[in-house]
Amino acid sequence: MDKMKLIETESLKKDIPAFNVGDTVKVMVKILEGDKVRLHPFEGIVIAKKGSGIKENFTVRKVSYGEGIERVFPVHSPSIERIQVIRTGKVRRAKLYYLRGKIGKRATKIESEAAKA
């Protein structure tokens, strides 16, 4: 089992910012188009974080043209170029699945006091 942990720790990314559930993040995803690679931004609220180590992932939700879109990203995936924290949120839940039923301003989270300053 120690050999597996050693291999996993070598493939972990080191430049991941600290973010939590409720934060608004922009994830830059690499997309292959023929022989070119372009970056596609996906910006939304983190509604869940699961796992640990190499298996850690997070779910980002955004509303686009009135339709809710959720995407699950592995944190240490090679297809993620970078993760940028746009806003920090103040929440009291570990999973924000209740946001699926909200629309408009009710679907956005309140900013924390540290982010405003």
How are the elements arranged and paired?
Blueprint: H1 2-10, E1 24-33, E2 36-50, E3 57-64, E4 67-74, E5 80-87, H2 113-116
Antiparallel strand pairs: 1-2, 1-5, 2-3, 3-4
Record keyword descriptors for this entry:
mainly beta, SH3 type barrels, 5 strands, 2 helices, globular, 117 residues
Question: What does this entry look like structurally?
Answer:
It is globular and about 45 Å long. The mean pLDDT is 88. It has one domain: SH3 type barrels. It has a five-stranded antiparallel sheet, with no helix packed on it. The protein starts with a helix and ends with a helix. It has two helices and five strands; from the N terminus they run αβββββα. With 117 residues, it is mainly β.
The Rg value, from CA coordinates, equals 16 Å
Helical content, roughly?
10-25%
How many strands appear in the DSSP assignment?
5
Structural class: mainly beta
Tally of individual domains: 1
CATH class: Mainly Beta
By CATH, the architecture is named Roll
Could you list the spans in which at least 5 consecutive residues all have pLDDT below 50? none
**CATH fold annotation:** SH3 type barrels
The shape is globular
Alpha-carbon distance between the two ends: 46 Å
Strand % is 35-45%
Largest sheet: 5 strands, antiparallel
The main sheet orders its strands as 4-3-2-1-5
Order of helices and strands: HEEEEEH
Q: How many helix segments?
A: 2
What's a quick, concise take on this entry?
The chain is mostly beta strands and 117 residues long. It has helices spanning 2-10, 113-116, and strands at 24-33, 36-50, 57-64, 67-74, 80-87.
